[in-house]
Amino acid sequence: xxxxxxxxxxxxxxxxxxxxxxxxxxxxxxxxxxxxxxxxxxxxxxxxxxxxxxxxxxxxxxxxxxxxxxxxxxxxxxxxxxxxxxxxxxxxxxxxxxxxxxxxxxxxxxxxxxxxxxxxxxxxxxxxxxxxxxxxxxxxxxxxxxxxxxxxxxxxxxxxxxxxxxxxxxxxxxxxxxxxxxxxxxxxxxxxxxxxxxxxxxxxxxxxxxxxxxxxxxxxxxxxxxxxxxxxxxxxxxxxxxxxxxxxxxxxxxxxxxxxxxxxxxxxxxxxxxxxxxxxxxxxxxxxxxxxxxxxxxxxxxxxxxxxxxxxxxxxxxxxxxxxxxxxxxxxxxxxxxxxxxxxxxxxxxxxxxxxxxxxxxxxxxxxxxxxxxxxxxxxxxxxxxxxxxxxxxxxxxxxxxxxxxxxxxxxxxxxxxxxxxxxxxxxxxxxxxxxxxxxxxxxxxxxxxxxxxxxxxxxxxxxxxxxxxxxxxxxxxxxxxxxxxxxxxxxxxxxxxxxxxxxxxxxxxxxxxxxxxxxxxxxxxxxxxxxxxxxxxxxxxxxxxxxxxxxxxxxxxxxxxxxxxxxxxxxxxxxxxxxxxxxxxxxxxxxxxxxxxxxxxxxxxxxxxxxxxxxxxxxxxxxxxxxxxxxxxxxxxxxxxxxxxxxxxxxxxxxxxxxxxxxxxxxxxxxxxxxxxxxxxxxxxxxxxxxxxxxxxxxxxxxxx
Length: 706
Hints:
Blueprint: H1 2-12, H2 17-33, H3 47-58, H4 63-71, H5 74-77, H6 82-89, H7 91-100, H8 111-128, H9 131-145, H10 152-172, H11 176-190, H12 192-226, E1 232-236, H13 240-250, H14 254-258, E2 261-267, H15 270-283, E3 285-286, E4 292-293, E5 306-311, E6 317-324, H16 325-333, H17 337-341, H18 352-369, H19 373-383, E7 388-392, E8 398-402, H20 407-414, H21 416-421, E9 422-427, E10 430-432, E11 444-448, H22 465-497, H23 507-516, H24 522-530, H25 536-543, H26 555-560, E12 564-566, E13 574-575, E14 588-593, E15 597-602, E16 618-619, E17 621-623, E18 631-640, H27 645-655, E19 659-667, E20 672-681, H28 684-695, E21 700-704
Parallel strand pairs: 2-6, 12-17, 13-15
Antiparallel strand pairs: 1-2, 3-5, 4-5, 5-6, 7-8, 9-10, 9-11, 14-15, 14-16, 18-20, 18-21, 19-20
């Protein structure tokens, strides 16, 4: 009852009486639902939801959020249905409770899979009502406060999950107070020995620091009084987990991290913030390049403040944050400050709510393009650790990106379609590669082309989850479209042998085959054929089963089947392996490979021996007459071991308009060197010209394709 009275006392200060009564009724309902249940610690279960509600009441959350906090486990852990909560407390509360509840009715193969599914469910609920995550974070905070009753392995798993997922979410939403406590509790449980040693070091160093902190604070206070600037000045103690992360990430000693003195100055207006910067810079010399203006350009979570670093007395560095009272509330409570200010005349002055909505919108897009919950979770984890840089569009719009982001990331941050069609970039009006990393303050102009499409190689350098998921999604769809087109070609070739065409088949014939394979659409069947998962001859026979002409084609008919024309532009469903590097003009053979489509081999390739026992997978193929693209191929040569021979050979290859992709040098003995090149050529004739030119070099004694 003490905890309940504490809760009611808090909410009476900012909520009307009828809403307070609703919260009391929710407590009674939750206590009855959890009656007889106990936590691992032995206390009645209702104690946990009550503490969660108390945490949210400290943040001045609305009555619906507090009711949802009191009931957040009733769907998951009792027989209470969502419908009943909706009837008693309204639809919004029921949706909040359901959003926080885990997927208990589904069986998962592993803890990781369950975590990914539950996380995706929570974020999707959060996208429609952001209060879901506030309840979840308060729930996680109280669980972390009582983690000591669990066995060590479970304690470590929950602590790791908290540090990897919930701490970054709290940071992204600007919930600084919750973030810091989650960090400290997670650090204590995950690395108890490191935590204890660091705590001892901090306590040992604290006595000496107090004198210096008081001296600096008094100096700041005196100077601000001289300038007649009313301000509150606080010395900020560095948190243990922050000290640990700086030591680990930057490989610093404890003294190097702890010898920085931090202060926060809170004033009445934005203009005064800038006035204070000038005042403190006159008092102590500023460190060049360490001034950051997060008021003009706020962080993604709505955080606003001026940061500067000064050379203090005794040569110690001083970190100072300068902000208004409202900015300080947003810095501590982030998205929760929206509820603190929304009833005021200025509405949501913090900006945290709007920025959080924008982030959630990107989460929704990411979920739509992710292949599965595990991939979605990995993408979100990447997105939750931004060390931000700020770049500008040509029109002056600010785009925030994580450190290391490239021009492609910038394009996708503006719009998915721009990312999909970008072909180049100008950074500060100069052309640059798309892989160029963006720096703060640069103006970035994306060059696009209507026919362009994402390059799979982009996945090697993009860093934002949005870019990565959109590229994968586009390539996946592209492969599916190409597979459907190839599947239709392969099936029609087989149907020609049976004296028919796909367009002449009866709808019932197609429907029966789709039903047999449990497919809904014809495109699914074509895709499976194109990807090599199903054999075109078998499907063709099944489709013509009820026709008179159902006899098995004779061998002569199979041999006379028109070969499939290979253009080299079929995309990802026609593959050219590195074992034989086939090029136009080579005699080739195709094999259906599950998931890869058709793999084209040179008929002399040693690796085709493994397909001898699977003639049903063979596909009669030939090169199209006119092919306008280049293909990689392999050449090997023996050359005299002399200085400059590699340059001479490379120059000869270049003279024949062939591009060198890779070169490998292997010493054969003291006199000769083996050179192996992968080069790009148009066809067999082009390759012959290259080999003839290289063979004419005095120092080359032998050249061959393999």
